[in-house]
Amino acid sequence: xxxxxxxxxxxxxxxxxxxxxxxxxxxxxxxxxxxxxxxxxxxxxxxxxxxxxxxxxxxxxxxxxxxxxxxxxxxxxxxxxxxxxxxxxxxxxxxxxxxxxxxxxxxxxxxxxxxxxxxxxxxxxxxxxxxxxxxxxxxxxxxxxxxxxxxxxxxxxxxxxxxxxxxxxxxxxxxxxxxxxxxxxxxxxxxxxxxxxxxxxxxxxxxxxxxxxxxxxxxxxxxxxxxxxxxxxxxxxxxxxxxxxxxxxxxxxxxxxxxxxxxxxxxxx
Length: 269
Ligand SMILES: NC(=O)c1ccc[n+]([C@@H]2O[C@H](COP(=O)([O-])OP(=O)(O)OC[C@H]3O[C@@H](n4cnc5c(N)ncnc54)[C@H](O)[C@@H]3O)[C@@H](O)[C@H]2O)c1
Hints:
Order of helices and strands: EHEHEHEHEHHEHHEHH
Number of domains: 1
Oligomer: single chain
Bound molecules: nicotinamide-adenine-dinucleotide
Number of strands: 7
Distance between the termini: 61 Å
CATH topology: Rossmann fold
Structural class: alpha/beta
Number of helices: 10
Shape: globular
Largest sheet: 7 strands, parallel
CATH superfamily: NAD(P)-binding Rossmann-like Domain
């Protein structure tokens, strides 16, 4: 029976809601984050929801912290069945405004954090014939304007997930990749970008979501049960992706006018 899950970025937002969704089925959860106060709150909620587990501070940029987390899962749970590489940060800015440091920071967390999570837990997953769930974004598929470093990191997560889907089939390890559109969480707290105006624009996009982080966790749960590889929780996202596959130029044109609108809004009055 599979009932042990590890989640990075579990101290807030989607990571917390995924923990609670599986806690309701009595799962044991290894909850990791750099935000220890948030982790403590998540564990309390997990226990109230019917699950249990432990918390561990883990910065996904540091491979040794991820291997230590894998060892803790081994020691406390005797292994792991599902890992959710969810920890992430937000960023924005047109390409000419982004520094190389902005790129390094974004890639180190949102892309290499996922690579390192998969690598650190692979030996445990091989034994349990477990599952990898990588949290990417619609940004991976749509390449919205003024977030090229985020787009590239998340597109890398999709490419990694596709590669692992193919390569790990033989070891009977399942792979899923999740691409949500914007939804309301604390993601803006980590935002790194050139201007307060850009941050405010991203904030409005997060608020505009018709679905919550809890809805997304429910959707992931249902799609995993159907063994779906690519999980697109927003209806609008599913429509946009279908449209882009048929007619990419249409989407590029839409993104170009969106970039023009954003530039106009970002200009000082
Ligand atoms: N909110 C959205 O609109 C949205 C849309 C698409 C994808 N996503 C993705 O969903 C995932 C979860 O984000 P969220 O929206 O719940 O945001 P959130 O900020 O509420 O949660 C992210 C968590 O990741 C943690 N974290 C950040 N850097 C870390 C690091 N180096 N090591 C370990 N933990 C770290 C934060 O402390 C935080 O608790 C992210 O990968 C994000 O890119 C979010």
